[in-house]
Protein 1
Amino acid sequence: MKILFVSSEVSPFAKTGGLADVVGALPQYLARRGHDVRVVMPLYKSIDTYAHRLIPLLPEIIVDWGTDRISGEVMRCSHPSSPADVPMYFIAQELLFDRDGLYGEAGQDYFDNDRRFAFFNFATLWMLKGLNWSPDVIHLNDWQAGMVAALLKHHPIISEDDFYRRIRTVFTIHNMAYQGLFHHDMMPRMNLPWYIYNPDGIEFHNQVSTLKAGIVFSDRITTVSPTYAKEIQTEEHGAGMDGVLRLRARELDGILNGIDDDVWNPETDALIPANYSADDTSGKAKCRKALLKQFGIKDKAGAPVIGMISRLVDQKGFDIVAKAMPEILATGARIVLLGTGEAKHEEFFRSLAARNPGQVGVAIEYNEKTAHLIEAGSDCFLMPSYFEPSGLNQLYSMRYGTIPIVRGVGGLKDSIEHANKKTITAGKATGFVFERYTAGALQQMVKRAVQCYQDQKLWQKLVKDAMTKDFTWDRSAKEYEKVYKKTMKK
């Protein structure tokens, strides 16, 4: 099959979250399975064109935005970690994308994100014609790519062009909370008919929703775990779009994200002090020692190191973490956190580290090497999310023998088997799962994990079983192949 991925971020070129990791890895695994896979994204200021050896491909792409004409170009390189030579295309437009942020700065979205990503969507389709390459499936990701589906079905020129007529679309929702809401003057500026601006189309509370455009007009919809696919059809997690998702339930699939074993593998990871495997975990103790040293934490017998790597936002459970922290610290557990986010959470953890030197270590930043060290050197990994569409860190943690403590939602529920003496003995357990979103439920589960850690024979069996679970992208790629084939039959 010929497959084009359209995404606003792709690792390692530009990243704000899990979307970049997914689109950085999944196309490569599909290409290894024999498909012609290509990826397109905007050319942001932060992307080093020299280091990534970008070369000009199409010198001029012109997009109409109302009465304005916007001109850009297309550049190309190969994905740096792809043995399958997956082509990467970059939509370049200096005024729109040569900025310090991807979507905004200082906590504020850019005022012209509608124009920026409308240009990206149009330019992607014009690029295909310029290359004379018509994919079987365009795989769209999140609100930044959603209008491609509307253009293919309802733009007066594109929808009538035989070049585009056979293309099918798959739209992946990575997070329902981000909906791409803009003023309805976007409709005439994109030359889209007003008859699709209604509650059954792309209108959402008197605005255009580019996320809803993807949901309504794509041929098939996926999201990033089976449980999240069910959750977004409920009022609690549907973010106001549960009704339209229920209408399309037969075309909605949930596929759990995978991990890139070339990047996240303790046996080969060059970013950690010592490599190790499920058969020989001795290197993990060296990583643990290095982690404690880096964060200035004193070791204590029987006390596990609990790692966290996250955006510091309420969605990730940091409101209940703050309430539970006194009881968690009372267990003797050592806490290590890496991340940035809302000011209130950043200040809480800075203050927590200052009040608890030697027990709490905090880095308010994102650093790839430190992230790998936390995964390798921690004993547990805490993810108490209010909602979590898929989650990747719990998968990385299991691969590194770092036992997840999670709330049973979304992909966390799909990927973690709760640990108790019976499930550990049977070789089924992979982590600790609590259900209620309360500080009490969180601190109770941390206490259980600490108690289990103190029985090192039981704990080491849990570690080995977690490390041998298969969550690679190859498994997920096979599921996406099935979705593409269903889409092409339509």
Protein 2
Amino acid sequence: MIYDVQQPDSLLRAQRRASLITAVFGSIPLFIGRKLRRFVYRTVFADLGADVNIEPGLELIGAYGISIGNQSSISSNVALNCWVPNSKIVIHDRVRIDRGVFLNPLGGRIEIDDMTYIGPYVCVGGPGRIKIGRNCLIASHTSMYANSHNFSNLDIPISKQGLTCKGIQIEDDCWLGTGVRILDGVTIGKGSVIGAGAVVTKDIPPYSVAVGVPAKVIKNRESNQRVLIPPIN
């Protein structure tokens, strides 16, 4: 399974070092803690930009696969997991990651572009590639998982039938309301708004407003016209 991995000794040593550093410096509060983490964490991340703000309680697994850009902010109790080989988390400039967020590429790549906000307790998981564009607003408790379990064979446990991984893309300037669910293989077009609690199972065109389970487009922001949805008989 993809979860059962063996790491080279060099990466195991790097993880132990990162765990020690986060244990020593990860819970120091206030300005002094942020200052120390900004300095010391440079030694464990793949890349750490200027003026990055890291609050207490960040859980780091596989920090050597994580890059964080300039002036980005990581709130408390965030978990970043790049333990599975080839995992990458790339956080660009001026991104804000709120408390309790969980990013887990599972061997894939999660990328968050400039000036995007990720709300509390958002969960994002691979191993398909996930790209979130610039200036996006992702509200609390949203989830996006770029994988789907195979289950056609009744004689084999679902957990052992493997995955399909198509990837997820959220284009620039999108707003996802609280509790939105994004399924594998979906692209949400630029400037779109997804209503709270929606389950997005297929692509959403640019500048759309979509709501419901499954999500349906009800309005186009460019034309400001509503889309007529046939009644359900």
Protein 3
Amino acid sequence: MRETAHSGPKLSISGEVSSFLHYCRVEKGLSANTLAAYTRDLQAFSSRAEQENGVPGLEALRRHLDSLQQTGLSRRSIARHMATLRNFYRFLASEGRIDCDPTERLVPPRQWQNLPKFLNRPEVERLLVAPDPFKNTGLRDRAMLELLYATGLRVSELCAVRLADLQFEAGVLRTIGKGNKQRITPVGKSALAAVRLYLETARPKLLGGRPSPFLFVTARGGRMTRQAFWKLLGIHGKKAGIFRNLTPHVIRHSFATHLLEGGADLRSVQTMLGHADISTTQIYTHVMRSRLRQTIEKHHPRG
């Protein structure tokens, strides 16, 4: 007999998914990117869930995640699938659609956890000076890279920064992150100087008299997009000699890792990254343990 999360009449998985997505969009105000990810993950789950008698239970969830692993899906993608399923089942439980939430007993296998990729400090320094300082776009790119590394923003948050969000005198940046939640992040002097230089010289020329509320704009005067920033990051990465999978999230990981290496506590890093749950931030403790082991092996007399 197959285990299900509901003892009552069979529920329509597609209908429950639609209700959940509507709740996320209207009541939680989640971003379009998050909604798109939820939709993809739940569509993959629904195709298997239709074979179950009711809402799938714990064993069915495990089989689904196992099948994702067997297809060669990355550990990060599998972790995202798990997060989607947890949020979906919590919604069903809160709405009284299921008797119990099986995801409360869903434990991710240790081998699925992956250490985040990050740059060392010399690599970061080479990347920051890669843009051409004699071009307007180069000054903009330098300012974006400096701000990204100084704050650990997500790429969507970086592109959405408005002029009014950055307070130079206080040295802080106001960010609207996931779930429409606001956070205040300190910004270092180097990033503030790079942004100020861009504002005073390059941005007016890029806009050519056109108004824009956004801090970072393109040569056509429009708002910088996520896709465009990914592309220019790859270009500057190659110029800096960084050829391995360089993404905006690698810079975010570098920001968090270097803070922890410098002595920052995990709670402070959680706040600056905008993580709702400390467990999300705890992935960086794996990095710290790894680095501590390397330090002992290299420097301890009996390492």
Protein 4
Amino acid sequence: MDTHLTNTSTFAELMGISSQTLHHWYKEHLSGYEPIGRIEIHQNDITVKSGNKQEIIDVPILLPENVGVAMAIDEKLIGENFYTIFTNRETGRIAFCGATTNSKHLEQAMCPLTDALTQVQTITRDMSPSYARLCNNIMPSAVQIADKFHVIKNLMDANNAVRVRYRQVILEAKRKALARFKEEESIRRKESERDGVKFKAQKFVHKEEKLANGETLSEILSRSHLMLYKFSEQWNYKQQFRAEILFEKFPDIAQAYKLSCIFRAWYCKSNVGLHTLQIEKGLHDWYDEVEMADIDEMLNFKAQVEANEDIISAYFIRGNTNAIAENLNKRIKQYIASNNGVREVDFFFFRIKNFFASTSN
């Protein structure tokens, strides 16, 4: 149980005993949680001012020995709160976990790590202004690198937003047609009552054009979602045919897809180590294409890239990513799912600390 993030119900089933019994015995007698573990989980909590009140921020994990030269910082929704998790990219060990994303509160909570933070050479993070301020203040000499996962996610969100915009137009037209139909039916009903004629209700039918592949506009917009996340060479025959029709009907979607593919090709691992001038030229050429396309969603993403150009381009120095931090988040998410959520937050973090922060595992 100490070395496997598994639901106690799984072990209980294998052992042929009640899951409640095993959970009780493990938590209360075998794990070390009672009484020392419960106290340790809150020994690094901090008190901050929140308006006219004071608020306690939980800091369940704070281990200076897990700080290394390459670190990652990310946020994770656990229970009903967002936690900041500070992870060693080389070992995968958590050095800090606190229930806040506020930079000032994080500075206060991470104060005991001050000496250890002097060794940090690189820190990968998302493009949050809060994490930017934090890293500038507590690790001023570390090279900050935008996490590639978050950058690409924002790109694909912008790309997908164009498709969603057009789908909403189709759905709005259907909604308005239904409203007109209801109004017409209401008028017919009143006329029937006035004339003493039995009213026969009609069924609403919204006819949509059938495209060459047998889909309607709303269907092709809905079914092209995952297709737009892939490069065209990864499409099967049906997807290729669907793309041809989609792009002919909606040129903006075609242009946004093209721009997303160009950016992803520029941001690929094979370009790591290229001269800075080559990297800058590729990015600024992409800027020009986005400007010419004049698509709001892509312009918004471009503005985000421009504001974070330095930390995005820093990826090409060594190819550092948040892969370990994202994998850790995935495993924590799987643990939460297998336990049907976080019902006992303190005990949850006690187990997380033992598994992801202890050097004995």
